[in-house]
Design goal:
alpha+beta
Length: 182
């Protein structure tokens, strides 16, 4: 009779596989958390920038008989630059995004808003767009925007209906399809 106890050398195949699966699961969850935190950071930065812009716009209006700057094809009106801190207002807060100052009319009502756009102006394909990877942007299209409404029936794009996918950062939840609480 052999009473000798076998010595184990290393882990069995099943144990190695279980460890590998657990390790990969931790890596995947950690990566998802990091990328989500980055996207939320971009949104917080966007909100902060829009708030700074709103303050600058109020200063501008106080000095210019409470008028708004004219519409821009894209970017920030040059006459507002002296009211804005820093000098990097040409680029939006998300990678490859840009600001778009808008002043236009819808059904006789003036609309004043600052939009953050995610598609290059010449883009015809959605693959050229770089949308935020957050739930509120899941159904974004070429004309979608993250925007701050100053006056009027704001929307994601002047050529789209009010319910076109977009995200208003300061609108009432009942007024728009999306708002911060969703």
């Amino acid at each position: 009779m052999n009473t000798e106890i076998k010595r184990r050398r290393g882990f069995s195949g099943w144990e190695r596989m279980a460890f590998g699966v657990a390790f990969l699961s931790v890596i995947l969850v950690s990566t998802w958390v990091v990328f989500r935190a980055i996207e939320i950071g971009y949104q917080m930065y966007a909100d902060q920038r829009l708030s700074v812009f709103a303050n600058a716009l109020e200063q501008f209006r106080e000095e210019h008989d409470f008028t708004y700057p004219e519409d821009q094809a894209f970017g920030i009106p040059a006459e507002l630059e002296r009211y804005l801190p820093g000098n990097n207002w040409g680029e939006g807060p998300w990678p490859d995004s840009f600001y778009h100052w808008e002043r236009y009319e819808v059904n006789g009502q003036e609309v004043i808003q600052l939009s953050i756009r995610f598609c290059p102006l010449e883009a015809t394909d959605l693959n050229a767009c770089r949308f935020p990877r957050l739930q509120w942007a899941n159904d974004f299209g070429r004309d979608s925007a993250y925007f701050y409404c100053f006056a009027g029936p704001c929307r994601s794009h002047r050529d789209q209906p009010r319910h076109y996918p977009g995200f208003c950062s300061n609108c009432d939840c009942q007024e728009m399809r999306r708002c911060h609480s969703q």
